[in-house]
Amino acid sequence: MLRRAAAGRLAVVPLLLFVAVAFGIPAVAMAYGAFTTNTSSTPGTPSAFTSGNLSASLQGGYLTALIGSVKLSATSALIGTVGGLLLAQAVVTSRFQALRHAVLSASGVLANFGGVPLAFAFIATLGNAGVLTTHLHLKDAGWSLYTFWGLNLVYLYFLVPLMVLSVLPSLDGLRRQWREAAQNNGATTWQYWRHVALPVLAPSLLGGFVLLFGTAFAAYATAAAMVGASVPLITLQIANALNGNVAADAGNVALAMSLDMVVIAVLVMAVYLPLQRRSARWLV
Amino acid sequence: MTASTLTEAVDPPSGGQKSARRSGRPRFGRAAVLVIFGLYFAVPILASFLFTVDDPVKGFNLSAYSQIFSVAGLWPALQLSLELAAATIAVVYLLLIPAVVAVRLGGPRLRTFVELTCTLPLVVPSIALTAGITSVLRWGSDNMVPGQTTFIQQLLIDIQNPTFPVILLLAYVVMALPLAYRTLDAGMRALDVRTLLEAAQNNGAGRTRAIVTVILPNLRGALLNTAFLTLALVLGEFTVSSILGYVPFAVWIVNGNAAGQGPVTVAVSIVSLVLTWLLLLVLSAGGGRRGAATPANQ
Question: Of chain A residues 154-213, which have a CB less than 8 A from chain B?
């Protein structure tokens, strides 16, 4: 029995080794580089520890980009959470099984439909020469896709399906009896949602919000492919620095900005993990 | 309180009346929600289709779609992406299947540990992972002394081989781990792994054989889902590959668009979306499960 348990644990070793090498080494290199001076200009010189990269990454244009990313992610995640909840609820209460199946499979595809094709679809639709922009003369009305709200609109295209996928099981878990009990006690629909359904759903809604925030925060391809995006985003800044489009010694600042991103992601995840346990209490 | 007394006054509190009222109002709201979201999701796809077939000079034509077969660079890029996807799926299977089985058989501490390890990549956005990878690769080339390459430096050069960039494979496996683990673990949860394995071993099968011939067939749905999600991830991946300077599928689309092949690249985007959708439908029909709906479940 003991021998078998040990053999079982050995099966985990390749996975751990792989993560240590393929994930651990770059992660450590990133953290190390964020706190050291750039050595690439003069090979051989020992690197010195500094907090300069980090403070540079939290100043001026870099700070604006970081705040821009947080703002965009928070806004789109909030709208995505509400929209996803509405859509999922509409699907759950529908009598048509085909609708449910269609929405689920569409969500599965669209949640993964981030990145380049999505950006192009929106450029073709609502970009400066897009089909809707020209036919509805949106340009005269002051519309531009390459703004904060334009990016929000694009991000929701994969955030709403993601929310549908993550909140649907919880909505399925809401018992019909709870609603009936509330009604029998004279509660209106609003009161039922306010006092029964939303408190039960709260952990999974917040969990979904965190998932959406993280996804929007990390998104790079969509924004990068929308050439001319004038919205400052941290991912675009990192990519610029890595590609050497700005000052040559920006490499280590890029690493510091990456570290900032990781810190924010960790903080957000720290909110989410305890909630994941709590949501299991009501929704079995 | 006032709201409820008001409705009580209008509606006699009999059950049948109430449910008629209740099902009447939300249905209108539900239809509105479905129509709004239906438009939101359908219009960009329809509009980009219009964009590809509507030539400002010649009017309606499908040349953007026929060019897919002749346009330069698409097939090598697609081939690279598909090769990387196949390799990523294989590595994910090899690493995760034994680990997930072990987690099912092992104690809660092992479970927490593996779960944490596989969730870890979630807190490092792919652009940050790329930054880390670049600095590792740069270290290799910066400390290079001509004529004497160390083993590690040679290794760092080898994994950047442009015909098959192993460095991308490593990054993709890391990025696929969180979802793949969750999907496989959810699939495994539906099985009584311990009983199945013990039954197989009582019948004389070795552990590996028991896993391959008993566990895996029962796990078909989760395995297909994992493969599909990984394929979608690799085909759409842009961040790591574009910054490291490789040209797989997604990077080709952007480059081609910048090079003035606008309609063709949008056409390719639409075709890839439709193909992904079809693949998912086939998989969800074949696997007898709810398609990719399970993995994103929190």
Answer: 156-157, 160, 162, 165-166, 168-169, 183, 186-191, 204, 207-208, 211
Does an H or E element contain B55, and which?
Answer: strand B54-55
Q: Calculate Rg over the CA atoms of chain B.
A: 26
State the pLDDT at residue B192: 81
Residue B286 token pair: 């074949």
Nearest CA in chain B to A234: B127
- Contacting residues of A for B3, CB less than 8 Å apart: 188, 190-191
- At A48, list the tokens: 């010195």
**Taking the model in full, what pTM does it have?**
0.82
**For chain A, what's the residue count?**
284
**Contact with chain B for residue A40, Cβ under 8 A:** yes
Residue range A82-128, pLDDT digits in tens: 999 999 888 888 777 788 888 887 887 777 766 788 888 888 888 87
The tokens describing B171, both together, are 């990054």
User: Chain-centre distance of CA B219, in angstroms?
Assistant: 18
Calculate the alpha carbon distances from B35 to A17, A90, A163, B30, B41 in Å: 49, 11, 18, 9, 10
pLDDT tens-place string over residues A187-201: 888 888 888 888 888
* Mean pLDDT, rounded, of chain A: 80
| CA B59 vs CA B52, B55, B82, B117, B235: distances in Å | 11, 5, 35, 55, 32
Residue of A nearest to B241 (CA): A221
DSSP, collapsed to helix, strand or coil, labels residue A145 as coil
Which band of pLDDT confidence, cut at 50, 70 and 90, is reported for residue B288?
A: very low
- B101, B114, B257 ranked by CB distance to A120: nearest: B257
